């Protein structure tokens, strides 16, 4: 029987890649010949390719499918015999309504507006093949890597070492009409100096209450509605706030964001389109300091407008806001753009005494990330920022679910960051840690989501994190409402004052493991480079840094991960990471013991098991261990 060729791709501005990665492996294991095109593709590109495939599968998880496919239809001539499937999270609405029928009128044969498990999907796909007189592939007895066509690694270009942010400012500000309102650095600096310091509020609150400072995620289309959210959070005692930026702005699609703003259908706050005056009015209307959270491809204009408007914390970095989110984004270009952001922040400190907090999103792809890899990425981004004059940094870590490992990770991250900064001559830096509640696919029920959120907050307290980015129980099926946020806040406040326990002997064992692995990686990466950005480029080119499930062509893509018998995250395949033989053997032994216990024969099976453990509800309670 000839192979069934399938074209698999993410569309639009969506950056999610973990589900596509699993689907890619699963399809190959079931006998399909997979051509994987990664994320951020235009669906129109695939019409002409239909003749070469029996199945075309498109995905988006950001809720903007209606915008991406507004004028898109697939005729029978376009299909040329291929079957078309679309799925993911196609709408920001809690109830998809008639969305499936609407997409079927566009020519799709199968439509999944929300999450669907793989078993259901394959049953319905087989029925579709049968009804169209097509032979359905037979599962392979063993996963075959030959069944997947991989992207090749792109080599990384040279850094831009000659231009400062001052030299590039006029071009950056001219990239949108609202940029000019941020042009006066002196005026901006005087205004910023009057705003509450994000980092200072976190430090004072943590010192007083000995609990992590709670921070909600919040991003809606309109300025008025955003202010309403902020005022409500403030009334509930929230001490720090954040603008969550929409995915079109993140991709620098300001025209698309303007259209989404008119339709009130954005999945976040289009800060650039609102402009300095509107954002400044929001900042002045509420007491808590405000951070900008995003994942913007080119963050320079967003940083200019955000800081000019009074935001005193700006999140992101050249690794964390590139490799997990983009397919063809040069790491050198990313490093250059973030150097601009760091120089801008340093300017406000040097000339106006305003220490902008710079947070690094160490959660990376958010799924099965070994702590040592998250910590090293954080520290490298920290070094690039403070070498440009940044004084306040926050290092983020995403909870994985093994309480002992999560507590140990926060401890090692803070300690190793302090030690590394001091060893490199940076002794006047404020370093804070951020605990992100579980970032991967949530449980499929509200009850289980609430139990996760409650226990997760207790883990953050036990870990001693400075700040807690919390989730809501709506995470499992839609973008949270104000009511969802309020209920989550109350739940977490209750949890943080409830007594929780940890296995401190196991925590110390995990600390030793994490510290050893992180030190081995850092030593190799920094040993032969005098410039931190050169060290980062060299590390990715050699596979010494390799982000699991990353969609980027600048990522080696050899490292895979899984859970051990205690649900701690380990390296399933170390790729080219410069870990010692002892560290590699330890990871191998732990993973093999898990496979033996669960009667799993292949790595792909283990990966599927672990990635879907939570959404399938195949666990007793949170934390997992």
From TrEMBL:
<dbReference type="InterPro" id="IPR036724">
    <property type="entry name" value="Cobalamin-bd_sf"/>
</dbReference>
<dbReference type="GO" id="GO:0050097">
    <property type="term" value="F:methylaspartate mutase activity"/>
</dbReference>
<dbReference type="InterPro" id="IPR006158">
    <property type="entry name" value="Cobalamin-bd"/>
</dbReference>
<dbReference type="GO" id="GO:0046872">
    <property type="term" value="F:metal ion binding"/>
</dbReference>
<keyword id="KW-0846">Cobalamin</keyword>
<protein>
    <recommendedName>
        <fullName>B12-binding domain-containing protein</fullName>
    </recommendedName>
</protein>
<dbReference type="Pfam" id="PF06368">
    <property type="entry name" value="Met_asp_mut_E"/>
</dbReference>
<dbReference type="GO" id="GO:0019670">
    <property type="term" value="P:anaerobic L-glutamate catabolic process"/>
</dbReference>
<keyword id="KW-0170">Cobalt</keyword>
<dbReference type="GO" id="GO:0031419">
    <property type="term" value="F:cobalamin binding"/>
</dbReference>
<dbReference type="InterPro" id="IPR016176">
    <property type="entry name" value="Cbl-dep_enz_cat"/>
</dbReference>
<feature type="domain" description="B12-binding">
    <location>
        <begin position="3"/>
        <end position="135"/>
    </location>
</feature>
<keyword id="KW-0413">Isomerase</keyword>
<dbReference type="InterPro" id="IPR006396">
    <property type="entry name" value="Glu_mut_E"/>
</dbReference>
<dbReference type="InterPro" id="IPR014714">
    <property type="entry name" value="Glu_mut_E_C_dom_sf"/>
</dbReference>
């Amino acid at each position: 029987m000839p192979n069934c060729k399938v074209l698999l791709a993410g569309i639009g501005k969506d950056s999610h890649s973990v589900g596509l990665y699993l689907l890619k492996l699963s399809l190959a294991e079931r006998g399909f010949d997979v051509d994987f095109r990664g994320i951020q593709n235009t669906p129109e590109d695939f019409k002409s390719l239909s003749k070469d495939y029996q199945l075309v599968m498109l995905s988006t998880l950001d809720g903007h499918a209606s915008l991406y496919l507004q004028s898109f239809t697939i005729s029978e001539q376009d299909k040329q015999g291929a079957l078309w499937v679309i799925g993911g999270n196609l709408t920001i609405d809690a109830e998809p309504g008639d969305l499936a029928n609407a997409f079927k009128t566009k020519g799709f044969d199968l439509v999944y507006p929300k999450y669907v498990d793989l078993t259901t999907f394959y049953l319905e796909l087989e029925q579709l093949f049968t009804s169209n007189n097509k032979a359905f592939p037979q599962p392979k007895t063993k996963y075959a890597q030959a069944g997947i066509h991989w992207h090749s690694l792109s080599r990384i270009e040279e850094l831009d070492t000659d231009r400062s942010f001052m030299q590039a400012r006029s071009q950056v500000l001219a990239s949108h009409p609202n940029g000019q309102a941020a042009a006066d650095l002196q005026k901006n600096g005087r205004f910023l100096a009057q705003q509450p310091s994000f980092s200072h509020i976190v430090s004072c609150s943590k010192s007083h209450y000995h609990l992590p400072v709670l921070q909600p995620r919040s991003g809606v289309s309109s300025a008025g509605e955003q202010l309403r959210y902020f005022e409500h959070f403030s009334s509930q005692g929230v001490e720090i706030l954040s603008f969550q930026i929409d995915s079109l702005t993140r991709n620098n699609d300001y025209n698309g964001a303007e259209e989404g703003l008119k339709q009130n259908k954005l999945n976040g706050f289009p800060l650039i389109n609102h402009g300095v005056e509107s954002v400044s009015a929001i900042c002045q209307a509420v007491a808590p300091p405000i951070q900008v959270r995003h994942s913007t491809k080119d963050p320079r204009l967003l940083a200019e407008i955000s800081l000019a408007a009074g935001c005193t914390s700006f999140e992101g970095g050249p690794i964390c806001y590139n490799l997990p989110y983009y397919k063809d984004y040069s790491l050198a270009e990313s490093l250059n753009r973030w150097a601009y952001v760091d120089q801008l922040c340093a300017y406000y400190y040097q000339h106006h005494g305003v220490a902008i907090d710079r947070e690094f999103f160490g959660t990376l792809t958010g799924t099965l990330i070994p702590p040592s890899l998250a910590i090293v990425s954080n520290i490298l981004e920290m070094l690039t920022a403070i070498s440009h004059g940044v004084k306040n940094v926050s290092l983020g870590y995403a909870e994985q679910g093994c309480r002992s490992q999560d507590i140990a990770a926060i401890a090692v991250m803070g300690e190793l960051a302090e030690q590394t900064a001091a060893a490199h001559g940076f002794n006047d830096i404020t370093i804070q840690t951020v605990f992100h509640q579980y970032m991967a696919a949530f449980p499929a029920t509200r009850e289980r989501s609430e139990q996760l959120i409650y226990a997760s907050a207790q883990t953050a307290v036990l870990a001693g994190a400075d700040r807690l980015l919390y989730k809501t129980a709506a995470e499992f099926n839609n973008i949270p409402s104000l009511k969802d946020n309020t209920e989550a806040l109350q739940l977490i406040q209750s949890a943080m004052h409830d007594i929780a326990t940890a296995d401190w002997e196991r925590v110390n064992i995990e600390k030793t493991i994490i510290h050893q692995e992180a030190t081995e990686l850092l030593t190799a990466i920094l040993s032969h480079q005098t410039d931190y950005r050169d060290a980062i480029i060299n590390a990715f080119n050699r596979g010494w840094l390799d982000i699991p499930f990353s969609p980027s062509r600048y990522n080696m893509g050899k490292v895979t991960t899984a859970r051990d018998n205690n649900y701690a995250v380990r390296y399933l395949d170390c790729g080219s990471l410069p870990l010692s033989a002892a560290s590699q053997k330890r990871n191998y032994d732990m993973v093999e013991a898990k496979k033996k216990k669960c009667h799993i024969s292949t790595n792909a099976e283990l990966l599927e098991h672990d990635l879907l453990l939570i959404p399938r509800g195949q666990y007793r309670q949170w934390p997992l261990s």
